[in-house]
């Protein structure tokens, strides 16, 4: 089986209970739509988080969120082929995989593209408090072009999109942080995703980032819910 959930920020207790109830094994895939809590600290605490997550039994397919360190920047990760696309894998935790942005996977016969990245609206707070913030949290222009090239190769047709943030026209205004001046927020990722959504022939889209459960047309925001793919 394949399931999806939203941002976990390193907390997998509810997913561990779900895994026990469903007798999850390595043939079962759980898609995490970003902000996984893996590699966040840059020290041994990361190993503790990953040990606990790996013990659930699932194969985890992770979309990179803005609070995830880019696996491409970490020497412990390497690219491997997986279900028609490419993922970053650390051999110490072979069941924890990060999707390469623009990879199109075959998930239960559905062509599924992965697109990570987003802007941290709490960037100033994080820097002031000494919390982790990653300068490469958003896709670069080259990474965006690589995603577009992968979609163009498929004539801009896929079944499913898995992203961290969403296209601009779908941004849930009710979920925006009240204390943040929205005029200061960098919406480059959402604006670019809107150009993708405008061109793409797709059936459904799943994203996280906004900590909300909501269906908007063909797009589903996921947070704590665990959905069947």
Automatic annotation (TrEMBL):
SUPFAM superfamilies: Metallo-dependent phosphatases. Pfam families: Metallophos. InterPro entries: Calcineurin-like_PHP, Metallo-depent_PP-like. Gene3D superfamilies: 3.60.21.10. Coiled coil: none annotated. It comes from the Bacteria. Residues 2-212 form the Calcineurin-like phosphoesterase domain. Signal peptide: none annotated. This is Metallophosphatase family protein.
